[in-house]
Design brief:
The chain is an alpha+beta fold and about 400 residues long. It folds into 2 domains: about 130 residues, no CATH class; about 240 residues, Phosphatase 2c, domain 1, CATH 3.60.40. It has 12 helices and 11 strands. A 6-stranded antiparallel sheet has the order 1-2-11-10-7-8. Helix 5 runs antiparallel to helix 6. The chain is elongated and about 90 Å long. Its EC number is 3.1.3.16.
Length: about 400
């Protein structure tokens, strides 16, 4: 999404920034259809007072989809057209015209007043649309900073991500994901912040920042999770307030070591990842989940690493509970595993596209929670490779 140089119309820039949909074609053409219908009815009306009086409403019809300039021009057109119809003797079987009849003069005045009102309304609507476009543009930028697009290829891994906000205007929420190539392998994170609104976004930003930094330094997943939790607890203490204990995040940390053909998982109260391979779709869950981040210190639990085979052609799907808690109109939860088994193995992009379309269809386009997903596929005959070890990797005591 790029901005061109030079001066441009603010509304056009706002629309280009956010991709706001233009009004429907039928709405843009509604004033023309309105006048065409009047021209059809006018000769068919056997009364002295023709239906041209309904032109009074034409400026308001135009205000639905057009700006103040078009509405003002439409008002002038309506007044002139009313005069043309009133002064034409043949209309409605009249023998003479009524161009300056007091009823028509009153119609001209009413049309001018309605046109002035329609112009003001159109200006107000346009201003609100520009404001909304700017807000959505800022939200897009914030999302790009907070949830950076994951690389589509890291060594022998192919990756893709999905994010759906339940609030179409907010664009960002408390769901998060990340993939970082390190000397210890490719490290993955999926998380869901409790709550909504700006506090959830702030918490997600703090967690992602801690993970992106610690992923390169900590030699194993328990140490990584512990460092992220320490950062989260420090951040919650700085924020203060009565909801300190409620600022927690469910998360899954995963690691695919270079050339290891295994995946290691630390689950912190989050829905377990799903392993997809030909003939098999299953959850990676051994019932040893730790508490959510920022709650572990309260209960004193430690992090447990679960290790699973992860060979060429296998795919790992990490997701937030917005997927499994999506409901159809009857209130039935979305059957994720059943859907994945019915689709069979798919490349990451196609898998997430299917998931996106199916979630919207299943919920009748009424998602009630933010949704995030991260898909990682190990290419056949090509081992997973991570980034080269950093210059100070030797200080960790573990080779890259």
């Amino acid at each position: 999404m790029r901005l061109g140089r030079g001066r441009q119309d603010p509304q056009a820039v706002s629309a280009a920034r956010t991709g706001l949909p233009a009004p429907p074609v039928w709405m843009r053409w509604l004033p023309v259809l309105y006048v065409a219908g009047l021209l059809v009815l006018e000769p068919m009306t056997p009364v002295d007072w023709p239906v041209s009086f309904v032109l009074v409403a034409l400026p308001l019809v135009a205000a639905f989809a057009h700006g103040p300039t078009v509405v003002a021009a439409t008002t002038v057109f309506a007044i002139v057209f009313e005069g043309v119809l009133a002064g034409t003797p043949c209309c409605a079987g009249r023998a003479v015209g009524y161009l300056w009849d007091r009823h028509y003069v009153a119609s001209y005045v009413c049309t001018a007043l309605v046109g002035a009102l329609g112009t003001v309304l159109a200006a107000h609507r346009t201003h609100r649309e520009r404001t909304l476009a700017d807000v959505r543009f800022v939200a897009d930028i914030a999302q790009r900073v907070l949830l950076k697009p994951v690389p589509h290829r890291i060594g022998g891994l192919r990756l893709d991500s999905l994010y759906l906000s339940a609030d179409a205007e907010a664009r960002i929420g408390g769901d998060l994901y990340e993939a970082v190539p390190t000397a210890y392998g490719v490290r993955l994170l999926i998380g869901d912040v409790r709550g909504k609104g700006l506090p959830a976004v702030e918490t997600a930003a703090a967690l992602l920042g801690a993970f992106r930094e610690a992923a390169h330094d900590e030699p194993d997943l328990p140490a990584l999770a512990d460092r992220v939790e320490t950062s989260m607890s420090r951040r919650a203490t700085q924020l203060g307030g009565s909801e300190l204990a409620e600022r927690f995040v469910t998360a899954v940390f995963a690691e695919i070591p270079p050339g290891g053909n295994v995946v290691r998982v630390v689950n912190c109260g989050h829905p377990p990842p799903v392993l997809i391979r030909p003939g098999e779709v299953r959850e990676l869950d051994r019932g040893r989940s730790a508490p959510p981040l920022n709650l572990g210190m309260l209960v004193g639990d430690t992090y447990t690493v679960d290790e699973y085979d992860f060979g060429p052609g296998d795919q790992l799907l990490l997701y937030t509970d917005g997927i499994t808690e999506t409901r159809d109109p009857a209130g039935t939860f979305y059957p994720l595993l059943q859907r994945l088994r019915s689709w069979g193995p798919l490349p990451p992009r196609e898998l997430l596209e299917n998931l996106h379309d199916d979630l919207r269809a299943y919920s009748h386009n009424r998602l009630t929670d933010d949704t995030a997903a991260l898909s990682v596929y190990l290419l056949a005959d090509e081992p997973s490779r991570a980034a080269p070890p950093p210059a100070d990797a030797g200080r960790s005591g573990e080779p890259g």
